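2024-03-11 09:14:02 DEBUG pipeline.ingest accepted 1 chain
2024-03-11 09:14:02 DEBUG pipeline.ingest length=635
2024-03-11 09:14:03 DEBUG pipeline.predict start
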Amino acid sequence: MKEKQYVMRSVCALAATFSFLHTPFLSAQPARGGFLETPNKSAVRTLIDASALRSFIPQRGVFRFPAPYNSDAVRLTNATDCAGNDCVNYAGYSYWRNMNNHVGKESMLIFLGLDQTRGGKGPTLFEFNKVSGELKDLGPLFPSRNHLSWATGEGWYFSATLPTTLYINDGPRIVRFDVITEEMRTVVDISDQLGSGVVLTQMHTSDNDRVHSATVRDSGNYRVLGCMAYEEDGRQYHYYPITQDFDECQVDRSGEWLVVKANLDGRDGEDNLVVNLRTGDERIIRDKDGAAGHSDMGHGYMIAADNWASDANTWKLWDFNEKSLKGKRVYYNKDWNVFAPAHVSHTNAQSGVAPSQQYACGSSINRSKGIHANEVVCFNMDGSSTSLVVAPLMTDLDAPGGDNEYARYAKGNLDITGRYFLWTSNMGGSRLDAFIVHVPGHLLTGVTDNSIGSDSYDWDSDDSGSDDSGSDDSGSDDAPASSSVHWQTTRNITVAGNRITKTSGCDGCGDAGSISEEALTADHAHMEFTVGSSWALMLAGFSQTQEIPVAEDLVLGLRLQSGMAEVRESGNYRAEIRYQDGDRFSISINAGRASYAHNGTVFYSSEYTAENRLFAGTALYNVNAAVEDVTLLVD
């Protein structure tokens, strides 16, 4: 039986539910519509006027854009959400996710700012079922007495890995807010380092949730003071007091690199300071050499607009691991009369996948007609400059909806899978509303069965590690054997019998754990352990090295904290399940499949090709964190 995907935020909350009779499009494999263009073969399309938009866009729910787009979309809001007013705030920016990590779930969560001063309820949570088409208004994130209920929501974003976690700036703090349980925890308070009188804006977080950056401002006059970065695991602060011509700073999705944007030499325009947070090495990209203006980050690289390029609307990819920082062109067109795409989103960046096998999507609004001037467009990052036209943005800069011109610019963002793009549009009318379009990314990548983008997971599948060969080897002398683990490397832990406990080191830091002496080389490896402290943060799973692991080191692993176990594969979130003290978990590899079981029941499976060798590892973050009865099963 499928487990319930999300629980009600509060037993007292009343959620409006909207059901639609349209065919549920978001479960389609692959997504429909869209078409490819190249710079030499790109057309200028006529804008769809307001009356025509009203003929096919419903008051709320799913619909399909007309030819030539033929893509599927959903309208999330309408005037009833704002007491008839124009209260929907624009999507914050292209690098802040409004949609959660919904991989393996039928529904996605979406947060939107519905301004209370204009008839809204403040930042509000919606749930959209990708299979049934049902849309639920789960209500405001905060009660009206809470000061955060008056926030616009700009600069807030969903975690890449934690499905119900929203990052929020609150004065000098970056906080994690669980949109379902309403639990709030402080990640960092910069006043601990810089004293009172400072606030944080323009936050960013690495995809593994461990490294964060933000702009530091004076709380009195809002003047920029500089850029900060914070590494949670080592509780390490970085501060760059750059005040002149400062724009912003942003940590990349790996958490290793920080880009600070400012006019560092007082010439030409905005430069980039590129910092390796692990080594402290610093390099500068000058504006004339293609320094990023509008940009977004991947894992170890950025995609940035280059206004000094010889071709119109050039976007380049900068690989920070290269010795010479020289951008590679990934998009351009032949129309100098428009700025398109103006804002590019790469919030779908994947760790361990070459940039050349990925894509980004952008949006822009222009008064002039031109190539991609008013459309959602995606492009390959392999240098081919092939673009995918997805949908019209439907905004008129001269219509009143959106209050001001800056708010009318789309600035849309992708979800973690790259299959859904969210933006706000005034449809040529008197208000902004929010939309999501289903992105046919397979037209760019050629991949139609991408596990990270799966709309649903077969929870009923039984992949417990049984032998599918049809033979019965239960009596064979070569049957796998179970054994307790011999620990090759241990740090800050005490091993007492079959129990491993963190007894020293930093409370909350990843400085304790163990790695097995046994190298698991078989295609039928198995690890089991019992949770000894459900409240503590712990990692357990298979690593390719004999070092105390961090999340990215566990090719197959579990992250456990506060009664929630999350499947993490090379640091990427896959699924989750609740647990308590004394529960037993196992991770198995069997004939190219990995499966994760809780108290003997498989709750997640994935494809996995066995490496030459793997080691069983644990990492314990909190003092007194403990695991018990760790056993291995190998051929």
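2024-03-11 09:14:41 DEBUG pipeline.report The longest helix spans residues 50-56.
2024-03-11 09:14:41 DEBUG pipeline.predict end
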